[in-house]
């Protein structure tokens, strides 16, 4: 979207505050910048391993002279300090009710039609995978891509979780950590565009996005990803919120099987 004076000033203030901090906390290794579309709006899909991910990804985009716009929970816009910052930088609130979904799509279209970058976490929340691999994706990013025609660019990063582990309240500042970030090529959804958005079409598009993202994460970690993507529903976990413990979930699953009931039956 066209940058207002207010938006430019807000971005500059945030960047001038956060960039020095990020440069002190983290070494950066950024790769694949040539894969960023420069002549059209696009949807960027990062993996999600820690609460500081948006700052890490936002830092990257701002350094590429691209103003990042996030789909953010509407409730965050009511938080003191954070809410005004989100509004001032034209972030896009996501309503969970049907009446608000239309407004969210309109905001997303505005970003994309103006040639901007819309950042959508395809997992919908921090991964529940015990080893922090990308878990099962939700269909929101795929739906937006098929509705708007925007290219989907997977963006993998690794290292921020060493600074602030998932759902932790304590930063690990020393020794200084390195965050690697790699931009992948746009996900090919050409054969799905123009088709009715059935569950099958949305699931297929979502799997392609998650597959592309997982490959990039595996490259950064130099490890092989799990053969089966983690699915919170099949593990008896809630899809959103902090109220889960991977270790406890493993023990819970073990106890259920020992008692003759698998957590898969409860999903």
Shape: globular
Q: Could you give the order of strands across the largest sheet? A: 1-7-6-2-5-3-4
Write down how many β-strands occur, each being a DSSP E stretch of 2 or more residues.
7
Counting DSSP H or I runs of 4 or more residues, the number of helices is: 7
Oligomer: single chain
How big a fraction of the residues is strand? 5-15%
Low-confidence stretches: 246-267
Provide mean pLDDT, rounded. Answer: 85
Measured distance between first and last alpha carbons = 41 Å
Helix content: 25-40%
Q: Main sheet, how many strands, which sense, barrel?
A: 7 strands, mixed
Which class do the helix and strand fractions yield? alpha/beta
Order of helices and strands: HEEHEHEHEHEEHH
Give the C-alpha Rg. 19 Å
What report would you give on this structure?
This protein is α/β, with parallel strands linked by helices and 267 residues long. It is built from seven helices and seven strands. It has helices spanning 5-25, 53-63, 82-88, 98-113, 140-148, 199-221, 246-258, and strands at residues 26-31, 42-46, 68-73, 92-94, 117-119, 152-158, 177-183. The radius of gyration is 19 Å and the shape is globular. The N and C termini lie far apart (41 Å).
Question: What characteristics describe this protein?
Answer:
267 residues; seven-stranded mixed beta sheet; 7 helices; alpha/beta
């Amino acid at each position: 979207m066209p940058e207002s004076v207010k938006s430019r000033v807000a971005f500059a203030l945030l960047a001038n505050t956060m960039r020095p901090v990020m440069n002190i906390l983290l070494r950066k290794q950024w790769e694949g910048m040539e894969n960023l579309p420069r002549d059209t709006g696009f949807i960027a899909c990062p993996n999600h391993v820690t609460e500081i991910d948006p700052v890490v990804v936002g830092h990257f985009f701002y350094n590429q002279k691209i103003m990042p716009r996030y789909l953010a929970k509407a409730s965050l816009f009511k938080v003191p300090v954070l809410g005004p910052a989100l509004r001032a930088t034209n972030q896009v609130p996501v309503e969970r009710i049907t009446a608000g979904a239309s407004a969210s799509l309109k905001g997303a279209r505005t970003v994309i039609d103006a040639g901007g970058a819309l950042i959508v976490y395809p997992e919908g929340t921090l991964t529940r995978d015990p080893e922090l691999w990308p878990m099962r994706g939700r269909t929101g990013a795929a739906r937006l891509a098929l509705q708007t025609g925007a290219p989907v660019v997977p963006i993998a990063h690794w290292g921020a979780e060493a600074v602030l582990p998932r759902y932790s309240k304590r930063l690990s500042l020393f020794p200084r950590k390195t965050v690697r970030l790699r931009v992948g090529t746009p996900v090919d959804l050409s054969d799905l565009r123009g088709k009715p958005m059935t569950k099958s079409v949305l699931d297929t598009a979502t799997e392609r996005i998650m597959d592309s993202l997982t490959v990039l994460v595996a490259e950064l970690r130099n490890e092989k990803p799990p053969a089966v993507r983690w699915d919170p529903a099949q593990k008896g976990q809630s899809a959103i919120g902090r109220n889960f413990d991977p270790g406890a979930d493993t023990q819970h699953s073990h106890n259920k099987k020992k008692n003759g009931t698998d957590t898969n039956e409860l999903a």
